[in-house]
Amino acid sequence: MTIRYLLDTSILSAVIAPKPNIAVIRRVGQRGAHCATASVVWNELSYGCERLDAGKRKAELEAYLRDVVLASFPVLPYDQEAATWHASERARQERAGRSAPYVDGQIAAIASVHQLILVTANVKDFTRFKGLIVEDWTKEMRAKK
């Protein structure tokens, strides 16, 4: 299967939220074979889990990360090519008088260098990245006529 989508933290978190987002679950179910995530997203998810005290919620999250995320989605690295793209975008954004959070730049870079559509619930956070295609799977799809 060809990877077409890069899932960010907000999407992977929406699946296991106390009130899971049904639209995200449906889309991931339909397109999951074409999805990957980023190493920096893995860091955010792992860090969030590690911060929890031992208990039922932490065990559920650990199982989700191990049995669903790692088992289902390749984790793409923030490598030299992504770092170079990110550096160029940071400089361009600074010259324009606006810059994005560093981790958002890393995620955008990984999506860009792999020519993937970035899937996020936080579309506004990624619109400033040049040439990046972004989708929000948190809303129900409308049937095409």
**CATH fold assignment:** Rossmann fold
The total strand number stands at: 5
**In percent, how much strand structure appears in the residues?**
5-15%
Helical segment count: 7
- What radius of gyration results from the CA coordinates? 16 Å
- Whole-number count of domains: 1
Helix content: 40-55%
Choose one word for the global shape: globular
Distance between the termini: 28 Å
Order of H and E elements: EHHEHHEHHEHE
Largest sheet: 5 strands, parallel
**Assembly of the depicted chains:** single chain
- Reading off the top of the CATH hierarchy, the class is best stated as Alpha Beta
Stretches with pLDDT under 50, minimum 5 residues: none
Question: What integer is the average pLDDT?
Answer: 93
- Class computed from helices, strands and strand pairing: alpha/beta
CATH homologous superfamily caption: 5'-nuclease
The neighbouring-strand order within the major sheet is: 3-2-1-4-5
Lay out the secondary structure.
Layout (H helix, E strand, L loop, with lengths): L4 E3 L1 H7 L6 H10 L3 E4 H12 L5 H17 L2 E2 L3 H16 L6 H12 L3 E3 L3 H4 L7 E2 L10
Parallel strand pairs: 1-2, 1-4, 2-3, 4-5
Helix pairs in contact: 3-4, 5-6
Overview of the structural elements:
This protein is α/β, with parallel strands linked by helices. The protein has one domain (5-135): 5'-nuclease (Rossmann fold), CATH 3.40.50.1010. The protein has 7 helices and 5 strands, in the order βααβααβααβαβ. The chain has helices at 9-15, 22-31, 39-50, 56-72, 80-95, 102-113, 123-126; strands at residues 5-7, 35-38, 75-76, 117-119, 134-135. The protein has a 5-stranded parallel β-sheet. β4, α7 (123-126) and β5 (134-135) form a beta-alpha-beta unit. α3 packs antiparallel against α4. The two termini are 28 Å apart. The model has no long low-confidence stretch (mean pLDDT 93).
